[in-house]
Design a protein that fits this description.
alpha/beta
């Protein structure tokens, strides 16, 4: 199984030229005109984050996830208005930044009750490795990821944080792993939003739940559907700039054809969690109610 978040298109070749040809063939769309799309593609091709998004269908690796979510440069250091929008204005990026905070707060509170923790897929594992382990140096941390560059980056961060001795890293496919019930807490983020199949998502949660001890905590999140696709959407539109939402849809949906735009409702996920033997303990909503964090206990 290959990476589903990035690595979609070859590095060689002119991805901007091919994208321009595609948007011109597609014509105007609900989010904007061909002329606006052409302008945005050309601007995306002027800075590294934009070129990465064009090449990887809007998906992020560990480096660019950190860049957007946990280590964003100051606005004045960004290259152009479009990059400033992507980092500080795109509604899903803002929701993801809130999700990161919810993950850290929830996991820090749980550390007093755990001995073994896993992150799947771990990426750079910034949310977990930058917690305060001052009183918890006994905790063993396992990171699993298919992306070997992410694993190298996680190793470097663990060394920077002075907890490398507590960390084990392994290359593994989340859908191919077989975990024994030995973890008191598992954190997972990202995979489900790249996966359109509910069946595959159900399998993922079953495999994650298998790695938890009874009473163990799974920290996860999901993207809720926007009102444009589901009249029962939980979004708080008063908290979302409509122009920012339109521009985000134009960039990620129409231009990049993003693979991560798989939305699910609480109602759709409830039977998936139940079948995996997981009970919802708490849901932590971001301001826009677009990317909630869910704390699940293994029954």
């Amino acid at each position: 199984m290959g990476l589903i978040s990035h690595g979609f298109r070859p590095i060689d070749g002119d991805i901007a030229r091919r994208t321009l040809a595609r948007v011109r063939r597609q014509g105007d769309c609900a989010n904007g005109t061909v002329a606006e799309q052409v302008r945005l593609v050309k601007e995306l091709d002027t800075f590294p984050l934009g070129r990465w998004l064009l090449r990887n269908r809007g998906g992020l690796n560990a480096k660019w996830t950190d860049y957007l979510i946990s280590s964003a440069p100051p606005r004045e250091q960004l290259s152009c208005d479009l990059e400033r929008f992507l980092v500080y204005g795109a509604p899903t990026v803002l929701a993801t930044r809130e999700r990161f905070g919810h993950y850290q707060e929830s996991m820090q509170q749980e550390l007093a009750r755990v001995d073994r923790v896993a992150s799947i897929p771990c990426g750079r594992m910034t949310d977990l490795l930058t917690l305060d382990y001052g009183d918890f140096q006994h905790i063993e941390i396992l990171g699993l990821d298919l992306d070997r560059e992410a694993l190298r980056s996680a190793r470097g961060l663990a060394e920077e944080q002075g907890i490398a001795g507590q960390v084990r890293l392994r290359a593994a496919d989340a859908w191919g792993m077989r975990l024994a019930p030995e973890f008191d807490m598992i954190t997972t983020n990202g995979l489900s939003i790249y996966e359109p199949s509910d069946g595959r998502v159900a399998e993922l949660y079953q495999r994650l739940a298998a790695g938890l001890v009874p009473g163990g905590l799974l920290v996860t999140a999901y993207l809720t559907p926007p009102p444009s696709t589901d009249p029962a959407s939980p979004w708080d539109l008063e908290a979302v700039d409509p122009e920012a939402l339109r521009l985000q849809g134009l960039i990620f949906g129409d231009i990049c054809d993003a693979a991560w735009m798989n939305h699910r409702t609480e109602a759709a996920l409830a039977p998936i969690f139940e079948a995996a033997g997981l009970r919802v303990e708490r849901t932590l909503w971001d301001t826009a109610r677009a990317f909630p964090t869910v704390l699940l206990r293994k029954v």
